[in-house]
Amino acid sequence: MLKTVAVLLLSTCFLVNEVLQDVCFPHAVMDLVFLVDGSESVRPEAFSEIKSFLCDSVDFFHVGWHQVRIGLTQYSSSVHAEFKLGTFNSKNEIRREILMMKQLLGGTLTGQSLEFLLTHQFTEAGGSRASGGVPQVVVLITDGEPQDNVIDPAEVLKRHGITLYCIGMMDYSSFQEIQSIASNKEYTSILPEFSDLQTITKNISQTLCELAEDPKLQGYRVCQQGASADIVFLVDGSYSISPTEFTWIKEFLHVLVNRFYTSLAEVRFGLLQYSNRIETEFQFNTYNYNKAIQWHIWNMKQINGTKT
Q1: Is 112 helix (H, G, I), strand (E, B) or coil?
Q2: Which among 72, 69, 84, 54 is positioned nearest to 135, based on CA atoms?
Q3: Do the beta carbons of residue 137 and residue 101 sit within 8 Å?
Q4: Could you tell me which residues come within 8 angstroms of residue 226 by beta carbon, excluding any fewer than 6 positions away?
Q5: Residues 198 and 222 in one domain
Q6: Domain ends where: 145, 180, 213?
Q7: What is the extent of the structural domain holding 284?
Q8: Given this model, what pLDDT does residue 206 score?
Q9: What is residue 186's DSSP assignment?
Q10: Strand ranges (DSSP E) for the chain?
């Protein structure tokens, strides 16, 4: 029998270490490498757009040795590791290196660059945590058709458990090739201009966040698969809840959701926030998998207000 449950979170004394503004949840772990086309077909102003996109993307994650590690490789006729996964553990250091990156120029040997990643970036010496089960992810940004074979190197990376997301500035004739590089069709973006990168930054970062793992969520589910229930979280978002307390609430909900098998036919979640008004964050039929719910919870903004 379907059961409906409401969970009310009031202004009790919640404690947390810090207020976190990033889109991705703070305990996310992932090894993320950006692979950037620096060939001469990329105009200097377009290369600047790529660097802006990279800096904006970095801001969405909690960077650290035990959180998200980021590496950057640029390629053209040659391949150069700008910095490896184990090089930096702060956003400021990473952004500084991105802004200092000089365009290589030359041809577009995309396949060669994919092979390079496996031997130079995704290694234990390079800072990869693949042996510990940490998700390994590549975001490829390119503007033209590769001048070498890309299918075989891409398949090798996939067989090693590395997820490939591809962003292309190409005509439609190249779309199938981009899709063949990516791990699946949903992990592709085709844009007319590099200036359009800013319009997809948040969506791509959300997708990458969903690929990350959260060690805090590793544990048994308390509800058996096939069970059905409609659960509503009712969250106090008034001024009586401090920003640090509100972050603690979000962390609690983030972990709690993972204890259930979520789908439109199993456990469904809704979320309301209230103060002197009521805000519907999402309804039962809005999301049908855990990570989408968790992403929304983590990005929920406190509405404040005087009444509880």
Answers
A1: helix
A2: 69
A3: no
A4: 261, 266
A5: no
A6: 213
A7: 3-23+217-298
A8: 83
A9: G
A10: 3-9, 30-37, 68-75, 79-83, 136-142, 162-168, 188-190, 229-236, 267-274, 278-282
For the chain, the domain total comes to 2
Last residue in a domain, options 198, 213, 228: 213
Does 188 lie in the same domain as 93? yes
Let me know if residue 306 belongs to a domain. Answer: no
250 and 136, same structural domain?
A: no
Q: State whether residue 190 is helix, strand or coil.
A: strand
Query: Looking at residue 270, what DSSP letter applies?
Result: E
Query: Could you read off the pLDDT of 10-20 as tens digits, one per residue?
Result: 443 333 333 33
Return the number of other C-beta atoms located less than 10 Å from residue 135's C-beta.
19
Q: Give pLDDT tens digits for 34-50.
A: 999 999 989 999 999 99
Predicted local confidence at residue 258, as pLDDT: 75
Structure-block tokens of residue 56: 């904006």
Residue with token string 């085709």:
190
Residue 175 in tokens: 């779309």
Residue 5, pLDDT > 60, answer no
Residues 6+ apart with CB under 8 A from 19: 243, 244, 247
- The model's pTM: 0.72
